[in-house]
Design a protein that fits this description.
The chain is an alpha+beta fold and about 350 residues long. It has four domains: about 90 residues, no CATH class; about 90 residues, no CATH class; about 70 residues, Beta Barrel (Elongation Factor Tu (Ef-tu), domain 3), CATH 2.40.30; about 30 residues, no CATH class. The protein contains six helices and 18 strands. A seven-stranded antiparallel beta sheet has the order 7-2-3-6-5-4-8, with no helix packed on it. A five-stranded mixed beta sheet has the order 9-14-13-12-11, with no helix packed on it. Helix 1 crosses helix 2. It is flat and about 75 Å long. It starts with 9 loop residues before the first helix and ends in a 22-residue tail after the last helix.
């Protein structure tokens, strides 16, 4: 760390925190505490405000899968085994995606009640997630489709809380509203509505977030979307990280704002470990910096504008000279002042 440069790396931040609190550096226990306070401050800095920070915005694309109807199926009432004939469920399509996958939906023999696929073991064998409750069928038609898709691995929340994709015009609604409006969601078409759903972690502690569309996509289509990332740090090799761990890791916060992380960590340190008035001073410094950060406006951003409704004023200005081809305005400034 240069003695004259802005705080840059994880090492810069936690070392400066120790220096400011007059703690000895090189002590493992104290250094670990300083590291934890810096990471807490980094995440807390984005809490509730990340949608306003351009550096936390990311873009991704979902490629939907076309409905699959090739071949026929057979299934016994009370069983979960789905048997295909002339099917290629475990074969990749043009997008290197299996024609049938776990979590996909299937409607059998024209019924509107869909079943969820639990697993696919071969081109002609799959397992339903629940037992088949209809009459046993053999050699019947079916429609397989997918209405749920994985989001980016670092997806935290949508950038726009009301629109999932502007380019494809897909509105975003709550899970409760989605379930109320589309309980079956079983007829593939062009999607126009979406909701974000959460599944329990599988194999690790990372929550699984997916997007669910109505109507389920009936064809292959590209759906671009914007979101806020959960990865707030980056390694020297460019690997995105949720928190900093190596001394050379850096926060995604622009260099000119990184001292705000230190101020917030300093406030927490004084409050929790010292319990003295310096916590209020550090908090004041942090608040001041954050207000200036939030006040920064990027080029091209919207600014408040006054847009009076001119049509009524124009009519009033014209009225005394209704025969005139053009608009005539008063000469004493009443129209310019938007007065009656």
């Amino acid at each position: 760390m240069s003695a004259t440069s802005q705080l840059t790396t994880f090492s810069d931040l936690f070392t400066d925190l120790q220096n400011r609190t007059r703690e000895a550096t090189g002590v493992t226990a104290t250094e670990n505490q300083a590291k934890r306070y810096i990471n807490i401050a980094l995440h807390d800095m984005h809490l509730g405000t990340d949608y306003k920070f351009p550096w936390a915005e990311r873009n991704a694309v979902i490629v939907t899968q076309a409905q699959y109807t090739t071949g026929t199926v057979s299934v016994t009432k009370g069983d979960t085994a789905l048997t295909g004939s002339g099917t290629a469920w475990n074969t990749n399509n043009e997008f290197t995606v299996k024609n049938m996958r776990a979590n996909g939906k299937v409607r059998i023999a024209g019924a509107l009640n869909p079943y969820t696929i639990s697993s696919v073991s071969s081109d002609t064998a799959a397992v339903l997630s629940s037992k088949f409750t209809e009459t046993t069928v053999s050699g019947e038609t079916y429609v397989y489709y997918e209405d749920e898709y994985d989001l980016a691995s670092d997806f935290l929340r949508p950038l726009d809380m009301q629109r999932f994709s502007d380019q494809v015009a897909i509105d975003l609604i709550s899970r409760t509203e989605f379930r109320r409006r589309y309980p079956a969601n079983s007829v593939p078409s062009r999607p126009s509505v979406a909701c974000i759903i959460d599944y329990a972690p599988s194999g690790n502690t990372t929550p699984i977030r997916r997007v669910k569309f109505h109507a389920p996509p009936s064809t292959n289509m590209t759906i671009p979307y914007s979101y806020i990332t959960a990865n707030l740090a980056v390694s020297t090799t460019g690997t995105a990280l949720t928190s900093m761990s190596a001394t050379t890791d850096e926060p995604i916060v622009p260099l000119r704002y990184r001292h705000a992380i230190l101020y917030h960590a300093l406030y927490n340190w004084y409050r929790d470990k010292k319990d003295d008035a310096r916590a209020d001073s550090a908090k004041s410094d942090y608040t001041d910096v954050m207000l200036r950060v939030m006040g920064d406006v990027e080029i091209g951003a919207n600014r408040p504008q006054l847009r009076p409704r001119m049509q009524g004023y124009a009519r009033r200005a014209q009225r005394p000279w209704s025969g005139s081809r053009g608009r005539r305005y008063d000469v004493n400034g009443r129209f310019d002042r938007m007065e009656d």
